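Priority: medium. Attachment 1 of 2:
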């Protein structure tokens, strides 16, 4: 029987690989400035992991209004990206180690592809990510399993050979529905109590612990 190949590792982007929460909240606050109906910070964070048009929909008056807000949000995000974006400690070292160990890696995000690519370059992760599935890559988005399956198809992996690391309930629901091992990232904006109802396979406090967790998963599933 051939030896199992290293697990494919899929990651969410915002709140998992990049610390973009300050940028996303500032973009939202700018977008809704002066409007009577606007989300709170906590309401906006709850929607992270879903496409921006979907996040905006409860607060708009028409399709045209949503398009105006969408453009306003994206313009602010584009102009303020680099000085409001931050890096999580240990992300690049962990990606480098996983790459060295032969794990193919991908990103599955609801962020637009241009900003996805910019975020990956900003933290220096683009050299390690083999497949990147963003909003513009697929027609169905998280929490549906479709984007996770699309990433696996591009990598040439089956669901039982992969894990998905994400910080939001939408990530965990998407990964569970795709039948991959889900790992809840607790260094993002969502708490353990917010993620527990989604039933992730594992919780992880620090991304630097991911290689050891993958070793434990491989040993468990080989037995």
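Attachment 2 of 2:
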């Amino acid at each position: 029987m051939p030896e199992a190949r290293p697990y494919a590792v899929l990651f969410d982007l915002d709140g998992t690989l990049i610390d973009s929460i300050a940028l996303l909240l500032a973009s939202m606050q700018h977008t809704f400035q002066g409007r009577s109906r606007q989300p709170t910070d906590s309401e906006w964070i709850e929607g992270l992991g879903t496409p921006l048009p979907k996040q905006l929909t409860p607060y708009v008056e028409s399709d045209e209004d949503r398009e105006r807000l969408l453009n306003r949000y994206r313009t602010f995000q584009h102009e303020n990206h680099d000085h409001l974006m931050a890096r999580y400690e240990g992300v690049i070292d962990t990606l480098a180690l996983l790459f060295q160990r032969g794990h193919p890696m991908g990103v599955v995000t609801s962020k637009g592809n241009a900003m996805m690519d910019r975020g990956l370059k900003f933290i220096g992760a683009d050299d390690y990510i083999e497949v990147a599935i963003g909003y513009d890559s697929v027609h169905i988005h998280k929490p549906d399993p479709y984007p996770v399956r699309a990433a696996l198809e591009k990598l040439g992996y089956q669901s039982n050979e992969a894990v998905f690391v994400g910080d939001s309930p939408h990530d965990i629901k998407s990964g569970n529905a795709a039948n991959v091992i889900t790992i809840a990232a607790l260094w993002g904006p969502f708490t353990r109590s917010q993620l527990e109802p989604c039933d992730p396979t594992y919780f992880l406090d620090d991304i630097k612990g991911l290689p050891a967790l993958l070793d434990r998963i491989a040993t468990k599933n080989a037995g």
